[in-house]
Amino acid sequence: MAAPLVIAQTTDLHIKPPGELAYRTVDTAAALTNLIAQLKNLQPRPAMVVATGDLVDGPSEAAYAHLDRLLAPLDLPFVAIPGNHDDRDLVRRAFPRQRYAQPSGAANLHVALDALDLFLLDSAVPGHPHGHLDRATLSWLDVSLALAADRPALVFLHHPPFATGITHMDRQNLENARDLARVVASHPRVRLIAAGHVHRAVATVFAGVAASICPAPNHAVDLDLVEARGPAFLTEPPAFHLHAWFPGGRFGHLVTHLVPIGRFGGPHPFFDAQGRPL
Q: Does the pTM of the predicted model rise above 0.85?
């Protein structure tokens, strides 16, 4: 099998101004620093790191400046879109080198990586926690997908277009998921819908396409599927997603790995020098 093209996805960084903790508990700056250290040591090196929103915890010049300083050691290509905790205009100013699809409005992005296309959709609704893709974004995605029908494509956004069973988060999902489904169903080159927002690793199928939610590098939303508790978070082991695309066939083959963040024992061999099991 040929070497894969690797895309690392992170999400929900929730960076605050220096010295502040998220929810008075979580050191999101330290969490991002740990993530970057691990990303820099990956082999093969990711062709792109994609951050799917909630880059800061509360939009301010100080928070985005802190984010910029924290990202400085990352020597990998990086792209980011807003989430509901972000301010779209501040994101545009924080990442001025990104080639946005439109000069104003939704901060959508298209990135071409060898034979693979990445589409990053801005689903943020200013002043609200839920997501929505405006008509201009959906039209741009539809037209863009039609322009190169033979190239596999991955679609990223902040708000999941499907329910997870965590009720207080599902209320904040992408409210016009059916509109996105109609576009996706019209373009078989879409191989993945990848979201954030829920701070948990989730996998399902959306519009006939594999769909996932990326875990966060800091804290996790409580896995409460029966509304036994109020909205809460846990400090579970942090992680990120590694999307590995292998060429071959019409649209290649895509697999997604969940990668825990931290130092762990190994790798330890299964066999000794003579090939005998240890």
A: yes
